[in-house]
Amino acid sequence: MTKAVATETLLREQAISIIAKGGFEGFSMNKLAKASNLSVAAIYIYYKNKEELLNRLFNYVQTDFSICMLSGFSADASFGVGLWTLWENYVKFAIANPSHFMFFDLFRNSHLVNSLDIEVSPFNQAVEQFARNAINKKEIKGMEPELFWSLAFGPLNALIRFHLDKENVYTHEMFEITKENLKRLFEMILTGFQRKK
């Protein structure tokens, strides 16, 4: 690994870590420089401004996320099998890369995601096709895309956050995702997708 590649990797991981812990409000080029033991001027060798840095970080994490999420997944799978594969992959990604997961989640839910420099995700395209296939096969009821995404991944996202926080903010009890509680939540979500007979 060249020095330039090593420095860019360091900057990327430090920036992701800072944002994952403190959000975008807690992030600045000065803070990144200090955490990386570099000058602010050195950062501008790699990124022309903060916006470019954030967009490139998101594209990098989104690429890794897509690769992980689409592992073993087929848009032609039955709905239950396909969604369960996505859920298992999602949990695997979040637990293996908690800072990346938190950064990705923050970015996706911010105004920054509308930048023209954000790449189209193969994951989004594959899941949209998967949903259309399931509706066409009459495996699930038709619904607006926003409802589909919210139902398919919103509850899982919340469960992962409980796992990463380690302590439930409501009960103050320790929480960990297990195959059993993941499957229980999954069965409830499947019920929400089912067509009325």
From TrEMBL:
<dbReference type="InterPro" id="IPR009057">
    <property type="entry name" value="Homeodomain-like_sf"/>
</dbReference>
<feature type="domain" description="HTH tetR-type">
    <location>
        <begin position="5"/>
        <end position="65"/>
    </location>
</feature>
<keyword id="KW-0238">DNA-binding</keyword>
<protein>
    <submittedName>
        <fullName>TetR/AcrR family transcriptional regulator</fullName>
    </submittedName>
</protein>
<dbReference type="InterPro" id="IPR050624">
    <property type="entry name" value="HTH-type_Tx_Regulator"/>
</dbReference>
<feature type="DNA-binding region" description="H-T-H motif">
    <location>
        <begin position="28"/>
        <end position="47"/>
    </location>
</feature>
<dbReference type="Pfam" id="PF00440">
    <property type="entry name" value="TetR_N"/>
</dbReference>
<dbReference type="InterPro" id="IPR001647">
    <property type="entry name" value="HTH_TetR"/>
</dbReference>
